[in-house]
Design a protein that fits this description.
about 650 residues, alpha+beta, 18 helices, about 25% helix, globular
């Protein structure tokens, strides 16, 4: 497949930077918070347009049906923005009114615009899978159910489909610039090749069904374990525990303004109670709760119910991290996942840091300026990573410089951007003094590899000086605006953002504190098992499997086709695979520290079972099987994961060596 015709222009020429700098660091800016596929969440009709379509750009970049003919039924638009929501609904090819920096309900992440961002110097993109069941249920228009986990599964699937879509343009599997990665080493390899490393995250209000009603949790530890296993199997490596509404895991940091007033109504509809406040006990505080409830939001409340007034000196959420929330953090640590603390109440953040500090765990992220800035030093001391929400370039540069000394103190590398595009988040508008001090086109990308002209899609050409960051393709233009107005030193820090993010991720993967030997329930001692899966439609993942974590995928319907494995402290490793149309392959042997590979690649054959044998000690494991799910754990000197004679694909594996 060649690039579709017609399609958006990229308006960037040149070869993207490859390799590393003279100090061995990867180069490129990071967007630590974006929602490529949010059109699939919220019932499917809140965000209009999509990142790609097999039927072409005219299908991808069209408005929601109810927005025709004049936008007067764009209800969510005027709940969030005021006004009457009216706009020209036509996207391709005219784009009269959207995408635009202030449009909150139209996609800004068409794949070609993401390609321009990559060619303009971006090397890490965190795609947060997102939905909200309360907003979905309350919104008038939808074409699917409101289960948040169903939306997350679909958005993950669509992200993998986008990878395949791009691959097809560039010559086949693995050839494209859009690469989903599942460990930091794999990300480094991808960036070294000059490609974009895409990481999956989750931002949901009720993860694993963990809502609470009248303070009664609607989930338990088994739901958290099962949910994290599924997310990890999808490739998710970072997540929020709460978002917008208090849930069974933690309290949230409030929204402000009319948005906050509307979200507080959602809080009532979700939990049976409005937000509750108290006086803050430290310098950190939550946002003041918005007042001025929109009529449409008020109508959603039962008769006789009204949102309460709040004391001006009581600005902190009474709800912090719950016992289940602490359990979820420790379960994430066991899987070496990164915790997003934006949207947590300050009480919940403080309690979360107590857990992280107690384990010296570095995997903590603030990805889009929802954390109280007084937590900055504590986060950097822990080894975490911060991305600032994209906004006016001079102000962004000033805020970046304000924390430079803290980064230097704790030897933190790089700084990030969090666009939150497609997340009901306004982007930077045109700078007021742009006419006197404009971005000049064409300009050289921050990595030096590309020359960028104004971006054109269809009949519309965008200029950041007059239209701001209207869509994702203008993020490199905004980075150039940072250089013009804020200085090269700030851009240099942004270009180390990919390196900084991967350092936090790598340290999280190497952290031993909560790695538990599944055989004994105690920390592992002197043994190590690493395994890598080759998955249908994806190819080789990174070494995602290690000492009890999973390799492969769950919830995507894809089969493992081959496995690579190595061990230390096992006294030798024997592995064989049962493959579709072949049966059991011969045993393959690897000495300690050596790698063995079984299964097939390039033949489209599913792996149905895997047998693993060790020379000393025992091995424990379980498999995720088609139509079965995770099987019961097995343990012995030789174990079999999966099935034979049933034509069922083995989708994921989890293994532990036992001392």
């Amino acid at each position: 497949m060649a690039r579709p015709v017609p399609d958006s222009q990229i308006n960037a020429v040149g070869e993207p930077f490859k390799g590393t700098d003279a100090q061995g660091r990867v180069r490129g800016f990071v967007d630590a918070h974006v929602h490529l596929m949010s059109n699939e969440g919220f019932g499917g009709r809140l965000m209009c347009g999509k990142a790609f379509s097999d039927r072409g750009i005219a299908d991808a970049l069209k408005d929601c049906p109810e927005h025709y003919p004049d936008g007067s039924h764009a209800v969510f638009d005027y709940i969030m923005n005021g006004g009457d929501g009216r706009h020209d609904p036509v996207g391709w090819p005219t784009f009269k009114d959207w995408p635009a920096y202030g449009s909150l309900t139209h996609t800004q992440t068409y794949y070609a615009w993401v390609e321009r961002a990559w060619r303009g110097g971006q090397r890490v993109l965190v795609n947060d899978l997102v939905s909200n069941s309360v907003i979905c249920n309350a919104y008038f228009f939808k074409d699917r159910g409101c289960d948040e986990m169903d939306a997350i599964r679909l958005e993950a699937r669509k992200t993998y489909e986008l990878q395949a879509y791009v691959d097809a343009m560039y010559g086949g599997p693995g050839k494209g610039w859009f690469r989903i990665v599942t460990d930091s080493d794999q990300a480094r390899q991808v960036i070294g090749q000059g490609k974009l490393a895409v990481i999956l995250g989750v931002e949901a209000s009720e993860p694993f069904g963990c809502k609470q009603v009248f303070d009664i949790p609607q989930c338990g530890p088994e739901d958290i374990e099962r949910g994290l296993d599924e997310l990890y199997g999808m490739g998710v490596r970072s997540m929020f525990l709460c978002h917008k509404f208090d849930n069974a895991l933690c309290g949230v940091r409030f929204d402000t303004g009319t948005v906050g007033a509307a979200i507080n109504v959602g809080q009532f509809l979700s939990t049976g109670t409005f937000w509750k406040t108290e006086k803050c006990t430290g310098p950190q505080h939550d946002n003041p709760i918005g007042l001025g409830l929109a009529a449409e939001a008020q109508q959603a409340l039962p008769p006789g119910v009204a949102a309460p007034a709040y004391a001006a000196d009581a600005q902190c959420n009474t709800r912090g991290l719950t016992g289940l929330g602490e359990y979820a953090i420790r379960a994430m640590m066991k899987r070496h996942m990164m915790l997003e603390i934006d949207h947590m109440s300050v009480k919940a953040v403080n309690q979360s840091f107590a857990v992280l500090d107690g384990a010296a765990y570095p995997g903590v992220i603030s990805s889009h300026s929802w954390m109280d800035t007084d937590w900055t030093e504590r986060l950097y001391r822990r080894g975490g990573f911060i991305a600032q929400h994209i906004h006016n370039a001079p102000d962004f540069a000033a805020e970046e410089r304000s924390t430079a000394a803290i980064r230097a103190k704790y030897q933190i590398t790089g700084y990030g951007i969090g666009t939150d595009m497609n997340g009901v988040s306004e982007q930077p508008g045109p700078r007021g003094d742009a006419a006197a001090n404009p971005v000049t086109y064409p300009f050289r990308s921050a990595d030096g590899g590309s020359l960028l002209e104004r971006q054109t899609t269809g009949q519309r050409t965008w200029d950041i000086n007059t239209e701001g960051v209207a869509h994702y393709g203008l993020v490199p233009d905004w980075v150039e605006d940072v250089r013009v107005t804020g200085g090269q030193d700030v851009v240099d820090d942004l270009m180390l953002g990919a390196e900084g993010y991967l350092r936090t991720w790598g340290a999280t993967e190497r952290h031993p504190g909560d790695r538990v030997d599944a055989c004994t329930g105690t920390p592992g001692r002197g043994v190590d098992l690493r395994y890598q899966a080759h998955v249908a439609d994806i190819g080789w993942q990174g070494y995602t499997g290690q000492n009890g974590t999973s390799a492969g995928t769950t919830g995507l319907g894809d089969s493992i086709q081959a496995v690579r494995m190595s061990a230390r402290g096992a006294g030798g490793l024997w592995v064989r695979a049962h493959v579709q149309n072949i049966g059991w392959q011969p045993w393959q042997y690897a000495a300690d520290g050596q790698q063995v590979q079984v299964g097939t690649t390039g033949q489209g054959l599913r792996l149905e079972a895997l047998e693993v044998r060790v020379g000393s000690g025992t091995v424990a494991g379980r498999g995720h099987v088609q139509d079965v799910g995770w099987t019961a754990p097995v343990r012995g000197t030789s174990i079999v994961l999966g099935t034979t004679g049933q034509s069922r694909r083995l989708e994921a594996i989890s293994l532990n060596l036992c001392s």
